[in-house]
Amino acid sequence: MILAKLKSINPSKLFLISFHLLFVLFWVQGCTNNPATGKKSISLNTMAEEEKIGRSEHPKILRTFGGEYNNLRLKNYIRTIGNKLANVSELPNINWKFTILNSKEVNAFAVPGGYIYVTRGLIALANNEAELAAVLAHEIGHITALHPSSRRATGTLTGIGVLASRIIFGQAGSEISDLIGRYSMARYSKSQEFEADLLGVRYLSRANYEPKAMASFLRTMNSFSKYTKKIAGEMGGESEMARIFASHPRTAARVERAIKIASEPKAVRQTNRITYLKMIDGLLYGDTPKDGIIQNQTFIHPSYQFKITFPMGFKIINRSDSVIARHWDNSQIQLKLEKKVKNKSMTRHLSQTWGRHHKLLNHERIIVNNMPGATATSVSVKNGRAFDIRFVAINGTKVLIQLVFTSPRNYTGKHATSFKETAYSFSQLSGKQANIISGQRIRVTIVKKGDTLSKLAQKMEVKKYKEECLMALNGLTKFNKVRTGQLIKLIRR
Q1: Whole-angstrom distance between the N-terminal and C-terminal Cα of the chain?
Q2: Residue-range domains of the chain with CATH
Q3: Is 0.90 surpassed by the pTM of this model?
């Protein structure tokens, strides 16, 4: 059948197919020996080209993840740990770069050329130096095993395969190739993650860190994921940690297997718990003040000197480009900031911003705490369900805010008053008020005589499930008892 199909293809298409197949064969012949595993790996770039890729991606990553966390003492500490591990890897001579991202999310990843990134959210979750070293060692393992390079090469090969299959087999072949392409372009496969674990354990052992820290940190991440999932689930959402676990297919059992296989025997291993906890004392936790912070149901932005309060029952998510508040009934409030405008009516602004894509009704000028504003309504239909929309624009003293209130039609009446109260809660802060706004911090404290998990949890400045958060943050379970003199992490301002 395939032969018959080939005979029906015109010569120019057949030449194109042959060219692509020869090109693929040429690439496969050009596979390089993997420096860490000894296996053949697809890599289309030299190390110098890999470094160039990493260098070009670096500013984009910084923009995406809130920039670099500028704490010189902590930066040098992370760089020292990273270089210690990189120096015992198979690629000690490349120009390794370790960057702390100013992001509350718990994440770490590697980019070609020896660029390793770890978020301050992840640093807050680790409970000793060995656990953070385990994360860095795992990411170094991805680089030395050429996983980012192989993924880029596979993506290129997949693109050629898709083109060839579409020419030969038509749409059916296209669907099969697209399916293969999606799986080929997944973050990392289970086998690649396990390979990075094996190499990570190797580097931990060589650098005299406790390899079991890789498994203990993964258990802490699992515990923290359950905590965040519990909070997100109340509002029908999905936690960021759940999405991270979906893209990092690792389990504690698999990591422990890697430890058993790759760990090099040695009597004493370092965890450096006290040093680590002292180093992260005062680390910013959660939202950064420059991007606004959430206190209970109020969003406060010190830089633009304003605050706004969202209704009870709405889960507030502070994103880099907007603030989203969601209700379990699919109602939503979106807040976006724009540059303050001069000599322009807010009614006109609404028409120019939203009137292009929506039929605006019920235009009205409003005044909110002596600031000019405007509002209008519209209707949209999603999957056969009608939603009412209300747009609000308010020209503040330092910034223009846009609010979009969306609710299923059968819930519009229920939220009408609270939506209006949210819009009219927008108010300016004085310079003095803005200056005293601070974010949450990791505060390392000494357990005193008579302290229990329950007592310590009451000191946690989190809204819900304080004890669960305390245990997850410190890698503890309900069966653990805190000891007098023990160092423990709290979240406070």
Answers
A1: 70
A2: 47-150+184-281 (no CATH), 289-435 (3.40.1000.10), 440-492 (3.10.350)
A3: no
